[in-house]
Amino acid sequence: MGVLIEPLNTSPALLFEPDASLVIELVAPDLEFEDADIEGLAAGANRILVGGEVLQFARATPLGDRRWQLRGLLRGRGGTEDAAANGHSAQTLAILLDDNLVALDPVEVPVSEMTRIAAIGTGDSDAVIAPVTNVGLSRRPPSPVHGRIKIASDQSRELSWSRRARGQWRWENSVDVPLVEEREAYIVGYGSAETPFTAWSVEEPCLQLSKEACDDLLARFGAADLWVKQIGTFDQSSPLLLDRLM
């Protein structure tokens, strides 16, 4: 565990970034990182949580004074592309995701922003109390991907996309990922993702809009974005931009 020494730039989280790096200051001198090759990264090695983003690194170089440079990054892992797109400031908490993590019983430790964790070490006189961060992050469905637009000869539009699923990170050929959620459902909105002008609920990964419907949207609300979110059992995904009517 440690903190970023300098800001980490934004990333589209699409490809392996061999020259990208970050510097972390660890909390203790006996902690260390190890290198991993591409095969190891593909198998899930060297995952680290920085703020609300899961990323992976290929090479680790000690710099002294508990500081390490991690180079060769895979950003936005596990559906955290939105956090990668925002970047991270210096002093952001960073935690290695390995077998040393301890699962907490949700019955004893409720999933809530009000939950606090107290920890005390051997020989310590006072406990350290900290809030739970990234509440519900692992229960939020990943945003849909591969947005597509097909414009017909009559100027109607077919919007479509591909869904992903929590915990299902491998793309198997010709096989849909498991649904995981209780049902397949999406919300397609026009305007701001927080407060859309209007929205449609659909149960399959596509939406048809006639030319008349598009003209009506422009006349009533002006130019704006069309986006989609997956509706999960516990939360909604981040939006995927599909189109912009102008």
From TrEMBL:
Domain Rcc01698-like C-terminal intervals? 1-91
Q: What is the lineage of its organism?
A: Bacteria, Pseudomonadati, Pseudomonadota, Alphaproteobacteria, Sphingomonadales
- Report the source organism: Erythrobacter sanguineus
Name the UniProt record assigns to this protein:
Rcc01698-like C-terminal domain-containing protein
